[in-house]
Design a protein that fits this description.
single chain; 205 residues; alpha+beta; D-amino Acid Aminotransferase, Chain A, domain 1; 2 domains; 3-stranded antiparallel sheet; 9 strands
Length: 205
Amino acid sequence: PALTPELREKVSNALREAFAAIGYTNAGTVEFLMDETGQLYFIEVNARIQVEHPVTEMITGLDLVKAQILIAQGERLDRILGGPVTLRGHAIECRINAEHPVTFVPSPGKIQSLCLPGSIGVRVDTAVYAGGVIPPYYDSLVAKLIAHGRDREEAIRRMQRALEMFVVDGIHTSIPLHQSILADPEFQAGAIDTHFIQRHLARRR
């Protein structure tokens, strides 16, 4: 919410010049932190697709996975994009993990039953199924749940409804934590920073 169109354009232009200078030609993610004055601080570049890529896909209509494969095959970016990229609406992603929503302890085990949400503006990326086992050896990600709306408020409402519909029996998941965060007035107002989770968890106690 704090990223204005002007700041987005400024950052995009700077990154375009930087990537052109080093000959970077495929998908990647650049991470920043922003302070209360709007000053950005560079963190890192991940030279790969990010787990949050569905958020970008939902607001642009692009298939980033397909695009990076085509680029690697030698296709021109302008032909892949088909014109200027426009941003439409707002999208939020919740990572549904197999962990206790209060203690954050991993919760591997067998999924006894599963009901995935589905509605307008809702997307679920997952490979789990009823009877499947979440092992203790790898990332605890169960699914990526993405909600898109005309604005942030609608995206939040759609995500809240999708989380209510999302049922995973047999293991603990982070669904209750996401529901709690989305209902937090501070989150809804967009007044979030790197200490938000600490404040939110303190209010839940």
